[in-house]
Specification:
By secondary structure, the protein is an all-alpha fold. The chain contains eleven helices and two strands.
Length: 312
């Protein structure tokens, strides 16, 4: 048990260090290329912080643990939105949101999630055809990010500082930080599972709580560091981008490889709740062009009730 605790602490340290430098490198790239912070958060940063979810779900699918593969994806969406976005918006609401960048990603998310919910309700599984469609939609999403980046405009501040930034160096830093997040999250997840199994927690509950929280720690650290450094839109974009990647890649890859069977509780509870918390986060922001502390408190309350209900 001592070894488990030590590995857990090492994982936490790697995540903290990786999240800190990942934000700096992503913002530096945004300034150099004139790309909005929220675009960088929703693409480069979210892809790096979603790597743990992709690995865990794909490995679980190969091992026949479908409940972990599906529960991890939807549990991570709920955790990213209700806990991470809820926490950051409670501490410091985003006063000026890049609404145009947020709106189309939000619409994309709700369309994909609604379609998956209907499919899951009717068939009780995500087969290979669904996985292939999701991977094709990821290509569409990546393309939309590229073509819309120029029209959404970049950050105007600190143009002189941007001249001193080296893109290759920042990309190397991003890769190293993503690797730290990847290794750190897996250390936390692996040892968290050992502890959970020791006390007899069911597989789906492990997936939607321990594993989802563990694999979402990169998003948590990135969002917190973004908040501390004054880049609120990076953190917000990271959460929304990570949620989209959870649908397109974390569900898409294992579905395309082996298919995923769904538990009834995943279809009836986890998926509708993922849609609800995203609506609580996004809709008021699109209406008011800023977030509020009340949103954060509501999201944290929802997450608390969800965790308690999962165990009960």
């Amino acid at each position: 048990m001592v070894k488990v605790v030590i590995l857990f602490v090492v994982g936490l340290i790697l995540i903290c260090l990786g999240g800190d430098r990942l934000v700096d490198a992503a913002v530096a790239i945004a300034k150099k290329l004139g790309i909005p912070q929220i675009v960088v958060g929703a693409t480069i940063v979210s892809l790096g912080t979603t790597l743990p979810e992709i690995l865990v779900s794909t490995t679980a699918a190969f091992n026949g643990s479908a409940a972990i593969a599906a529960g991890n994806a939807f549990g991570s969406i709920i955790c990213n939105t209700a806990l991470i976005a809820g926490l950051t918006q409670t501490i410091r609401p985003t006063k000026q949101v890049e609404a145009s960048s947020l709106s189309w990603r939000g619409i994309f998310f709700f369309i994909v999630l609604t379609a998956l919910n209907i499919c899951g309700f009717l068939t009780g599984a995500f087969g290979r055809p669904i996985g292939i469609v999701l991977l094709l939609l990821f290509i569409v999403y990546a393309y939309l990010n590229v073509i819309r980046a120029s029209s959404e405009g970049g950050d105007e501040e600190k143009k002189e500082d941007a001249k001193e930034i080296s893109i290759p160096v920042q990309i190397i830093i991003l890769a190293v930080c993503a690797a730290c997040l990847f290794v750190g999250a897996n250390l936390l997840v692996d040892n968290g599972i050992l502890i959970a199994e020791a006390v007899g927690v069911p597989e789906r509950v492990i997936a939607v709580t321990f594993i989802a929280l563990g694999t979402s720690l990169p998003e948590l650290m990135t969002s917190v560091m973004s908040l501390i450094k004054g880049y609120g839109n990076v953190g917000l974009g990271n959460v929304i981008g990570a949620n989209l990647l959870n649908l397109l890649l974390v569900i898409g890859i294992p579905s395309a490889i082996a298919g995923i069977s769904l538990e009834r509780s995943t279809v009836m509870v986890d998926m509708p709740l993922a849609c609800l918390v995203m609506a609580v986060l996004i809709v008021p922001i699109l209406i008011r062009k800023k977030s509020s502390r009340l949103q954060g408190i509501a999201l944290l309350g929802i997450y608390g009730v969800y965790c308690i209900a999962s165990f009960v």
